[in-house]
Design goal:
This protein has seven helices and ten strands. By secondary structure, the protein is α/β, with parallel strands linked by helices. β9 (189-194), α7 and β10 (226-231) form a beta-alpha-beta unit. The longest helix is centred in the first third of the chain and has 18 residues, at 9-26. The mean pLDDT is 97. It binds 2-phosphoglycolic acid.
């Protein structure tokens, strides 16, 4: 694990976009997996901008969406599907993409489809993830088993409360569908992004706390090729910075 501290969110987002572009230049058929959310939004915007300006071709790569709110339709602009479709897929147009369909009524089937997609196009070359206020990655909530592949999970009270920020109207969220942490462990590179003072406690816990399923993001410490990309406010509680 490396920790890289940037002056602000813009700088870390730009650096993350550059790493993704560099990978695609070396390996055009890479499998990418991104999280949605406020943190990676700017990276996705810059990735699209830079890809157009620098003529980067994503047409051979594959893309998997990290997670989704069970029961929320893709037309809802708070859904992960909406985020991935509009911010990433519409412009980059990868050859293959799979996003969980959270209204299919068969969540086990969706998990199987995602696992099959990753088997076919993977392993994942690069995952870009955020960190939740309870230390989750994707919807791998505190206490999750680290060996899981795709799965459905009851959301933790923190996620249920914080999650409403994505929705214009109160959303009936209860469960999430997500890639499990086994995929993070197997991913060639993991970028964990965080910005702002409000993330400083969870960043301290993830980077300098014990590695435990009670704090899923702490698994980042065990990955040989992970980069924790944070701004100064998010780094403010690190002892070794
Ligand atoms: P955020 O979400 O980027 O919107 O803060 C982080 C997360 O819950 O993974």
């Amino acid at each position: 694990m490396q920790v890289k501290i940037f002056p602000d969110h813009e700088a870390l987002s730009s650096a993350a976009a550059d790493i993704i572009i560099q990978l695609i230049r070396i390996k055009p058929a890479a499998l990418l997996c991104f999280a949605s959310g406020e943190t990676p939004r700017r990276t996705c915007e810059l990735l699209v901008e830079k890809s157009i300006n620098e003529n980067v071709d994503f047409s051979k790569c594959s893309f998997a969406g990290l997670d989704e709110w069970v029961g929320i339709p893709p037309t809802n602009d708070g859904s992960c599907h909406y985020f991935f479709q509009h911010l990433v897929l519409d412009t980059l147009q990868p050859q293959n993409a799979f996003l969980f369909n959270a209204i299919s009524g068969d969540m086990e089937g969706e998990c199987a489809k995602m696992d099959q997609f990753i088997l076919q196009h993977g392993p994942i070359d690069l995952m870009m993830v955020g960190i939740g206020m309870n230390g989750h990655i994707g919807f791998n909530e505190p206490g999750v088993s680290v060996g899981l592949r795709s799965h459905v999970i009851d959301l933790d009270p923190t996620t249920l409360a914080v999650g409403q920020k994505y929705f214009k109207k109160k959303a009936p969220i209860r469960q999430g569908i997500t890639l499990g942490l086994s995929y993070l462990q197997q991913s060639g590179v993991v970028l964990l992004l965080a910005n702002g003072e409000k993330k400083s406690t969870v960043i301290h816990e993830a980077v300098e706390g014990p590695v435990t399923p009670q704090f899923p993001a702490s698994i980042i410490q065990t990955h040989a090729n992970s980069i924790v990309m944070i701004d100064k406010p998010a780094a403010s509680q690190l002892k070794n910075n």
